[in-house]
Write a structure and sequence with these properties.
Blueprint (H helix, E strand, L loop, with lengths): L1 H11 L5 H25 L8 H14 L8 H26 L21 H17 L1 H12 L4 H8 L3 H21 L1
Length: about 190
């Protein structure tokens, strides 16, 4: 915990170089691997994507960031879930660009939405819908990223965001309905 606190302090002080990012990832590596593993276990992963690949690609993206401002562990995990989302979506985009319809990936958001997320194109539609949703309800997007892309449970999300589990359930249901409508339109 002390390593994480020091790494976050270094980043806040503008020390976003390799040493600070290394310290941050060393302090949280096992947790990040667990999150990535949970995410990939629930869904049929893309052939070239595994737990280690997601975490390592996230690390590279952290290194490429010009300035990272992370307040605490919860903020870091929230940011890491966005990066994991970006890693997965970018991989799908690359596959779709190479060959339309190839390398399909099964991705599930929740019961009732599952049938809309069976192809790469639909994951891209989900990403676009999340970007639109972020303009009006950013906390819903944060919950989707933590639940869907980082694979956290409702109690874990509630703990990270400092809200009740009931609030997370309500917002999760609302986000699913909004995204389901957006996916139907797409």
């Amino acid at each position: 915990m002390a390593e994480l606190t020091q790494a976050l302090a270094d980043l806040r002080a503008g020390n976003s170089g390799t040493a600070a990012v290394n310290a941050l990832f060393c302090a949280t590596y096992d947790e990040l691997k667990r999150l990535a593993h949970q995410r990939l276990q629930r869904d049929r992963p893309v052939d070239s994507l595994d737990t280690t690949s997601v975490v390592h690609e996230s690390y590279l993206r952290f290194l490429g960031a010009e300035r990272i401002e992370l307040r605490d562990r919860a903020h870091f995990l929230s940011y890491a879930s966005k990066v994991m989302r970006s890693v997965i979506v970018d991989l799908v985009r690359r596959g779709a660009a190479e060959r339309r319809g190839g390398n399909l990936m099964q991705v599930t958001l929740a019961e009732g939405v599952r049938e809309f997320l069976s192809r790469d194109e639909e994951l891209l539609h989900l990403d676009e819908a999340l970007e639109r949703l972020a303009l009006v309800e950013p906390q819903l997007v944060q919950i989707v990223e933590l639940r869907f892309f980082a694979g956290l449970s409702v109690p874990e999300v509630a703990g990270l965001l400092g809200v009740s589990e009931r609030s997370v359930f309500r917002q999760w249901d609302k986000a699913r309905l909004v995204l389901l409508d957006a996916l139907r339109e797409a």
